[in-house]
Design a protein that fits this description.
The chain has 187 residues and is of the alpha/beta class. The chain is built from five helices and nine strands. A five-stranded parallel β-sheet has the order 4-3-7-8-9, sandwiched between helices. Strands 1-2 form a two-stranded antiparallel ribbon.
Length: 187
Amino acid sequence: MKGPAHGTADSARVLQNYIHTVPDFPRQGISFKDITPLIEDGHALHTAVDALAEATEGIDYDRILSAEARGFVFGTALAYRAKKGLILARKPKKLPREIISAPYELEYGTDALEAHIDSIPEGTRVLVADDLLATGGTARAMCQLVENAGGTVAGVAFLIELAYLGGRDKLKPYPVVSLITYDDPQD
């Protein structure tokens, strides 16, 4: 699915008012989508979580996996609302028990995400949830964590998708939902 699903189009339009575009951050030529005003407003945050829950209600999953830090905001809220467990994907060396790891490429090098290996029992259906889909590297690494542990990626959900960066292509064949889609870097 692309864009709002299940009647969330109105919510997406309202939520866009809380997303501030910051030009040339963190470097020249980047238009950063700042979601902190949305998170700081209780009504907007509630609307975003409800809309994400509605957009993913047709996906059959057992647990949600989210990456630090902003992904935890939406992953936790969705897990609470759906009464599902939350799996934490962290930066390296942050988790105390046996882990699995998935590397991913950055513009300036590589990084990795880790999760406790026992957080994803074999056969577990996992919804990957994050705040933003850009180039798809982080989301793809989260999907690899699920599959490396023997789980199944049931779907991938985002508050925002920067469609012009092509991240959705890295997530094939998984079902992808996003509430707000930016098709142009100038938006």
